[in-house]
Known about the structure:
Layout: H1 2-16, E1 30-33, E2 37-41, H2 44-66, E3 77-83, E4 90-96, E5 101-109, H3 111-132, H4 138-146, H5 151-166, H6 173-176, H7 186-204, H8 206-218, H9 222-230, H10 235-247, H11 263-273, H12 328-335, H13 338-344, E6 375-379, E7 395-398, E8 401-404
Parallel strand pairs: 2-3, 3-5
Antiparallel strand pairs: 1-2, 4-5, 4-6, 7-8
Helix pairs in contact: 2-3, 3-4, 4-7, 5-7, 7-8, 8-9, 10-12
Amino acid sequence: MEAGTRLRIVLFAVAATISINFGLSNAQAANHRTANFLIQAPSPQLARAVGQAAEKYRNDLAVHWLGKPLPRWPRPCPIRVVAGERLAAQGVTTYNLQPVRDFQMEVVGSPERILDSVLPHEITHTILATHFGRPLPRWADEGICTTVEHQSERSKHEAKLREFLASRRGIAMNQLFLLTEYPSDVLPMYAQGYSVCRFLIDQQGPQTFIQFLQDYMDQRSWTANVRKHYGYESLGELQEYWLAWVAAGSGPTEKFAKAESNTKLVAAATAATNPASRVALATHQQPAGYQRPAGSVTRQPAAKPLRSPTKPAATTQLAHADGTRVGGALQETLSNGWYSRQRQAAQNTLASATALSKPNVIKPIIPPSVGQSGRYSASQPQPEQQMSRAGAPVAEVFDGGPTLRRYR
């Protein structure tokens, strides 16, 4: 976790160390070109800031997830910046398939959230698409990208997850893992995909998770690859352990992992190859030179509870990696859990909202700094709605093919 903390700090350092003054009048609209991006923003200062951050994220996130930087793209990715203090953080990335190329991106929100959440989320989509050369399963594509967002954004998904599980809107693992398109009820997929990604990444590190996905793309068996990389015998067993982890507060994963962890080795290797990971910076520090527009509201970060799940007592059911048995309190969670309800047609729900522990606010391991035609889209939805800004239709057309665009 120590290495993850350093990596998280560097991620925010990208936004916090850029010296800019955000004048956001339309009269100042400007473009800025970098090696891999062409930014259109409301002001020259913001355009340069987004360009700098985009290149930094592209390099650092690629090293984090893949172990090496990406080569330069043949064509720069246009980024349209829609900035406003009261705009909800959201974004969309589209690209052509066969081969993956011609990325286009739109980022929306306050300058602060664009730089520390929306931009790294969307940049991660481009890194994954470039690396794999094809779309990932939706839960993994969106889940991975959400792990690099600011804590304020990630905490929304944590809260929503508990709401969805308590109201029977959870998705069975064997359904979630096979999704190739956004389901009609899209928000549970985002929340659950993020949580499952975080659960697995925290156990074995980011590059093992990427290899886990690569092995699935090469050999279409989630069961075999879950067993190979994480030690769970089936998706059902993975879900039982994951649900228990969520019920315990989504804190450290050691008590819920079955395979021996190599997180420390991965984190050490990342730190050794990336000197920037040693940089320390306050998470909520404003970018240097930042001047908040008059009349805007300052949002104070929520206090972070310092608590972790209570270690359960002995039982004869599930066993941990060290051979010890999962405890009675944990087994009670599983026997009344959502997955067991699906398997056995039981009448009980997973748990009431009050039965679930409040989420632990921890700093996970995170980085330093499909259709047959048309363009593939990876996007962030608005809460509980599927309408674009200004009443525009959800489906828009790019290059002669349909592109699904959902804004958050």
